[in-house]
Specification:
Elements (H helix, E strand, L loop, with lengths): L5 H8 L4 E2 L1 E6 L5 E6 L2 E6 L2 E8 L5 H6 L2 E6 L5 H8 L11 E3 L5 E3 L4 E13 L2 E13 L6 E3 L2 E3 L1 H11 L4 E10 L2 E6 L6 E2 L2 E2 L8 H11 L3 E12 L4 E10 L8 E4 L11 H16 L4 E4 L4 E4 L4
Parallel strand pairs: 13-18, 17-20
Antiparallel strand pairs: 1-11, 2-3, 2-6, 4-5, 5-10, 6-9, 7-8, 9-10, 11-12, 13-14, 13-16, 14-15, 14-19, 17-18, 20-21
Length: 308
């Protein structure tokens, strides 16, 4: 790819959060085949079409190109093990997974949040992948939370909601954010210390909220999208809880505050020990491309995986 770094492009694509699916079919002798994919999307309601991209290097590509039917199994947030199993090359995938055949024989994995059985509609070559388009002939949708994927890691909305529900019962609940843009983090003036801190809704009394945080960012002239929960800190014996989210900004200069490069943060001006500890962790995790949810106080706690 002339002029484009493939690894950087892959990382950029990974900034778009997706669900996780297992695509299944049967080869001519009836043997089930399947692989994990997040390159899945709906295409059309009339006719009902969806698509999935398959790498040309995939061993199962000829089987899927020849199959008359295939299924898309949308995984729930308790099915990380299923995702990992079908992402590998184990010949025992279907003996280690509970499943049943669909109306047209494609394997439907038990516990999937949603599944679609499709008739092969069209296969289109596109670079190093083949886009397989299917016409939906049967489907079912269940309750629960999806297994998500972002920046090379699983994410679970259920875990975030459980943690937030517990924290919101505190006497004081504050909501802050690590807003990143082009490798820099937004810092704003701290009226209490005269230094810098992360943007935050809520103070020493009452409750903050995401809506309040968005209003504060608007007053700062910051255009940003709040994404996922990043940390829950408790102080004063649990009386004060602070939830921090990860977010992405445009990088445009705000009216107040400024973006500071992660590798050159003004530590001497950050007097909040919670903010210091979290930014140190964020810089390390951002470099590795793997994030978790921290739960604890400024001294001790644990980083919980972002999958169930």
């Amino acid at each position: 790819m002339t002029g484009i770094d493939p690894r950087a492009l892959r990382n950029a694509f990974g900034c778009f959060p997706t669900g996780v699916t297992v695509i299944t079919t049967r080869q001519d002798d009836g043997t089930p085949r399947g692989f994990t994919a997040n390159s899945f999307t709906s295409v059309s309601l009339d006719p009902p079409l969806l698509l999935v991209s398959i790498a040309k290097t995939a061993a199962s590509l000829p089987v899927f190109e020849a199959a008359g039917h295939f299924a898309v199994n949308v995984l729930g947030d308790s099915q990380r093990a299923v995702s990992a199993l079908f992402a590998g090359r184990s010949p025992e995938k279907f003996t280690q997974t509970e499943w049943r055949p669909g109306v047209h024989g494609a394997p439907l994995i038990d516990g999937s949040l949603t599944w679609f059985e499709c008739a092969r509609h069209q296969a289109v070559e596109a670079g190093d992948h083949v886009i397989l388009i299917g016409r939906v002939v049967d489907f079912a949708a269940g309750d629960g939370n999806p297994l998500g994927f972002l920046r090379g890691a699983y994410v679970s909305h259920a875990l975030e909601q459980k943690a937030l529900d517990a924290a919101a019962g505190a006497e004081v609940f504050r909501v802050g954010a690590v807003i990143e843009a082009d490798g820099a983090v937004l810092m704003v003036p701290d009226p209490l210390t005269g230094g810098l801190r992360l943007p935050m809704s809520g103070g020493e009394a009452g409750h903050g909220s995401l809506k309040g945080l968005s209003a504060i960012l608007g007053d700062l002239g910051v255009v940003a999208e709040i994404n996922f929960l990043y940390a829950l800190y408790e102080d004063d014996g649990g009386r004060v809880q602070t939830a921090y989210y990860r977010g992405t900004g445009t990088g445009a200069a705000p009216r107040r505050g400024a973006y500071h490069a992660l590798d050159a943060l003004p530590w001497e001006r950050i007097h909040d020990p919670v903010g210091t500890a979290m930014l140190q962790r964020y810089a390390a995790e951002n470099a590795a491309g793997q994030f978790g949810i921290y739960v604890g106080d400024a001294k001790t706690g644990e980083v919980r995986p972002v999958s169930c």
